[in-house]
Amino acid sequence: MSRALEQREKRARIKALLEAKGLEALILKKGANVAWIIGGRAHIPTTLELACLDVIVYKDRIVVVTNKIEAPRLEAEELSGDEELIVINWFEGREGQLPSGEKIGIDGPDNNRLNLSAEIEELRRALNSFEIERLKQIGSDAAKSLGESMLKISPKMSEVGAAGVIAENLWAHNLEPVVLLVAGSERIESFRHPLPTTSLIGSLFMGVICARRKGLIASVTRIVSFNSLSKEIEQRYQGLLNVESAFFGGTKVGATYGQAFKSGEVEYLKQGFARDEWSKHHQGGPTGYLPRDFPA
């Protein structure tokens, strides 16, 4: 499926939603939703929820509203070319260019439009075949990148230094690090989401990434030990792999998230973990244009 077919299929989904709701247009403002509809990068600061452009999807056309700073780059690198473009000054707000009223939907709370955030998120989570192939490649490249980085880490390196190695290698693979967690031996068993510090790596190291390309995000975790593992740690790790396998086995077409979750919850008990082990951290969740659409 080419990019044109990918976008045509997504726009057809929105058109069907507009017809079902009796609406004239839908406005997309959130970064994940805009990246989804254009199949490209929609951010400038990675810290903002809103995109650097607004997209208005009508039944017969698509309109992009952005400023003079972003328009040339978006036209050259992110948009498909069949969008109508409204370009404003950087000191002007985009709101004045957007339609409003009861016949207009939007992807968030709004006093003058119909909030369709839940419906849009449902459409976005259903990746089409083109997106699935892209995400597979992103996952493969992210795993390769992190694996290469782990071989460059040393016990006397600091966590922030290790984070720099990982980030550099991600960019070398055309991947943006949207989440980057690292922990050395002092912190690895204490914190579930270890932001890097100046602590030294020591004998054990974990690297966690959420890597993005053209909006889609893949998550990878790797652990390296610089010493021989004790039998206890080996058994614990194998138990976790069995739990992971159970979650994967329960994640199949037609199953509910609850059923998939139950598969892993039961396996935790079989592997000798505490009954509430699952409550100490979420067990994953659907991914795509966010690291987690929602935690499971």
Structure description:
- This protein is an alpha/beta fold and 296 residues long.
- It has three domains: 3-125, Creatinase/prolidase N-terminal domain (Creatine Amidinohydrolase, Chain A, domain 1), CATH 3.40.350.10; 127-225, Alpha-Beta Complex (Creatine Amidinohydrolase), CATH 3.90.230.10; 228-296, no CATH class.
- Helix content is 39%, strand content 20%.
- It is built from eight helices and nine strands.
- It has helices spanning 3-21, 31-38, 71-78, 117-125, 129-150, 159-172, 231-250, 257-270; strands at residues 25-30, 50-58, 62-67, 84-88, 104-106, 114-115, 176-183, 204-213, 216-225.
- The strands form two sheets. It has a six-stranded mixed sheet with strand order 4-3-2-1-5-6.
- A hairpin with a 2-residue loop joins strand 8 (204-213) and strand 9.
- The longest helix has 22 residues, at 129-150.
- The protein is globular and about 65 Å long.
- The mean pLDDT is 96.
The gyration radius over C-alpha positions equals 22 Å
Provide the helix percentage. 25-40%
Number of strands: 9
What's the CATH class of the largest domain, please? Alpha Beta
* Fold-level CATH name of the largest domain: Creatine Amidinohydrolase, Chain A, domain 1
**How many helices in DSSP terms?**
8
Structural class: alpha/beta
Strand content: 15-25%
Low-confidence stretches: none
Q: Please give the largest β-sheet.
A: 6 strands, mixed
Q: Averaged pLDDT, please?
A: 96
Topology order in helix (H) and strand (E) letters: HEHEEHEEEHHHEEEHH
* CATH homology superfamily of the largest domain: Creatinase/prolidase N-terminal domain
Shape: globular
Please give the alpha-carbon distance between the first and last residues: 31 Å
